[in-house]
Design brief:
The chain is an alpha+beta fold and 428 residues long. It is 41% helix and 12% strand. It has 13 helices and 12 strands. Helix 3 crosses helix 7. The longest helix has 38 residues.
Length: 428
């Protein structure tokens, strides 16, 4: 039974829910147990008068709370529990696991959608209100960084339904993955801010190009190619109008440069590129391989990684490329694979500490797709991944079941911060 409590009466140990959007507060989840006074001070600074809390899930030394209004006026004595049969226990645990799985997916989808809308609003301000666009982009970057400030590993998840247009999805993919790389390399706060802002705005110069020139095409002639490449200089100019930091401007200026000096516009080598620019250059290439303007040319995430490692290794910082592969996993989220027991599966999420053992959605004709549990390959040592395949190689039944998306969109989640279905039901 949930209740409301004034923020002035919050105590350590209370399990609360914040009725705010994901980007409107710095906590990884909207429902959580208060563990420090600092969290209480942060909540009081959000401008809320009251928050909802769940007494049953709270852990208070003194369970008296002032200014609390119970939502249910009549207390009902709990019924005596009836012992479960083993079959009922298995069924209940499966339902709970499935509910948590759906909850985690829905949480990522809603967070990505909110962040994507914020990016589009900022991008639309660039030409007419450049300083406002900078402030909005810096706020979005800080919101993403706040959500990454959790202990333990971060998982990279492929989304079921990416919202927004290709430009939004590309900017979000590059920013999210680059920030996770920055976290891996231990960049400082200001460096992470520059990395995030630069990644979100790396293609800002394309606003001044005709639509047909915004994406490089192998059929371009010399004049068209030069016009396309001008988006880098145009982006730097826009960045200066916005008042971006020097670090963010360098990301925009160098996001098409390569470690071997084969990039553009200045053909500088890796030693002259900033660390943030080297990360964005790498991630930008990966996402362009997975999500090209012409979908028929798209590579699977596994193919994209293999291509970069086998054919273009010299173009990227070796240390960063190796760290990128470890972080994304040998079979990145979104890859279609065949398991060692011959079943087909879609990689759903990857934990960098277990790159060969991701979580997968397995094609099982005996289980409806919306009731399928994700299989954590770490928990089944006898099952692994045999090979990566293209979606077109799937049998029709497996294709319908796994439903791999033409475009791949990524977001992140904390491996140790997964909401339970019961929490969501209580606060619904």
């Amino acid at each position: 039974m949930s209740s409301t409590v004034s923020v002035s009466s919050l105590k350590v140990g209370m399990f609360i829910h914040l009725d705010l959007g994901w980007m409107s507060h710095p906590f990884p989840l909207s429902s959580f147990k208060i563990t420090t006074q600092q969290q209480i001070d942060t909540i009081r600074g959000l401008g809320l008068k009251q928050v909802r809390w769940l007494p049953e899930k709270s852990d208070l030394v003194d369970d008296t709370v002032e200014d609390t209004e119970a939502e249910d006026a009549v207390a009902v004595a709990p019924a005596q529990p009836v012992p479960e049969t083993p079959q009922q226990t298995v069924a209940r645990e499966r339902r709970e696991t499935l509910a948590r799985q759906r909850e985690a997916a829905q949480l990522c989808e809603s967070q990505y959608h909110e962040a994507g809308l914020a990016w589009r609003e900022a991008f639309d301000l660039v030409l007419l209100q450049p300083e406002a666009a900078r402030r909005e982009t810096e706020s979005l970057t800080q919101a993403l960084l706040d959500k990454m400030l959790v202990e333990g590993e971060m998982c990279i998840r492929v989304l079921n339904a990416a919202s927004g247009d290709r430009a939004t999805a590309h900017a979000m993919n590059v920013a999210v993955i680059a920030l996770l790389m920055g976290r891996t390399f231990g960049l400082g706060a200001s460096e992470m801010s520059d990395l995030g802002v630069g990644a979100l705005l790396h293609d800002v110069g394309k606003l001044e190009l005709p639509e047909r020139l915004r994406h490089h095409d192998e059929r371009f002639g010399a004049v068209e190619t030069q016009s396309y490449r001008e988006h880098v200089a145009l982006g730097v100019s826009q960045g200066r109008r916005m008042g971006l930091s020097a670090g963010a401007l360098m990301v925009i200026a160098q996001h098409h440069e390569h470690a071997d000096g084969s990039g553009f516009p200045l053909r500088i080598g890796g030693e002259r590129m900033t660390a943030a620019a080297r990360m964005v250059s790498l991630v930008n290439r990966f996402d362009n391989l997975c999500n090209p303007a012409v979908l028929s040319r798209a590579l699977t995430p596994h193919e994209a990684l293999s291509t970069m490692f086998a054919q273009a290794r010299s173009k990227f910082d070796a240390t960063m490329l190796n760290a990128f592969i470890r972080m994304m996993g040998v079979y990145p989220a979104g890859s279609v694979v065949q398991l060692t027991d011959d079943r087909y599966a879609l990689v759903v999420s990857v934990n960098s500490s277990r790159p060969l053992k991701p979580r997968v959605l397995v094609h099982d004709p005996a289980v409806p797709r919306d009731e399928a549990l994700h299989l954590d390959l770490e928990s089944v040592p006898d099952v692994g991944i045999r090979r990566s395949i293209r979606a077109a190689q799937l049998p029709p039944a497996a294709m319908d079941y796994l439903a791999p998306r033409a475009r791949v969109a990524y977001f992140f989640e904390a491996a140790n911060v997964v909401p339970t279905s019961r929490d969501e039901e209580e606060f619904a």
